[in-house]
Amino acid sequence: METATGSTITVAPKPEGIEGAGFFATSLDKVVGLARANSIWPLPFATSCCGIEFMATMASHYDLARFGSERLSFSPRQADLLMVMGTIAKKMGPILRQVYEQMAEPRWVISVGACASSGGIFDTYSVLQGIDRIIPVDVYVPGCPPRPEQIIDGILKIQHLVETESVRRRDSPEYKAMLNKYGME
To answer: Which positions fall inside the NADH:ubiquinone oxidoreductase-like 20kDa subunit domain (predicted)?
Structure first.
């Protein structure tokens, strides 16, 4: 191709099979991911001291609102991030699972603190030794109780996961196999 100034521009041939739809789908994934990541609505499921640290995280000194999570939802149908904080008794397990199943897809889970992640110091018959035995967990926040900075770091990790997750991931065979492992779907 020759320009108005007389110089020649070489245009590389388009590879076979590349269509505009590939670009559009990739861009759509990025836009949807960015929108989801910056508008996460958490549902706090707090049963003990980790809930107090979460309250401090929501207060003005740490201000979780700067990360787009200022709208707490106490209805599972309107939340997309389940934050489990504190000791979960085995009798509470079915209720936690029901709350998780009532959440609309896509949904993510943060296990906050040692008790929710592994039972903590309560290695007894009545305490669930980690919520990942009944629901899938995306991010674990360690500590007993974790500091607000650690909770914010967990939120940032969820945001990164949400932003980079494909829109089609929830339809993948791997995701469906993971849900089957928990007896869902």
So the answer is: 49-157
Contact 150, 123 (CB under 8 A): no
Looking at residue 168, the DSSP 8-state letter turns out to be: T
- Residue spans of the domains in the chain: they are 40-149+158-181
Can you tell me the distance from the alpha carbon of 56 to that of 33, in angstroms, rounded to the nearest whole number? 28
Binding residues for [4Fe-4S] cluster: 49-50, 115, 144
Instruction: Give the chain's end-to-end CA distance (angstroms, integer).
Output: 56
Nearest to 165 by CA among 71, 55, 20, 28: 28
The model scores a pTM over 0.90: no
Number of alpha carbons in the 13 Å side-chain half-sphere of residue 153: 11
- pLDDT tens profile 37-93: 877 888 999 888 888 888 888 877 877 777 777 778 888 888 999 999 999 999 999
Nearest to 9 by CA among 21, 19, 1, 18: 1
User: Residues annotated as binding site?
Assistant: 49-50, 115, 144
3-state secondary structure of 2: strand
Contact 100, 110 (CB under 8 A): no
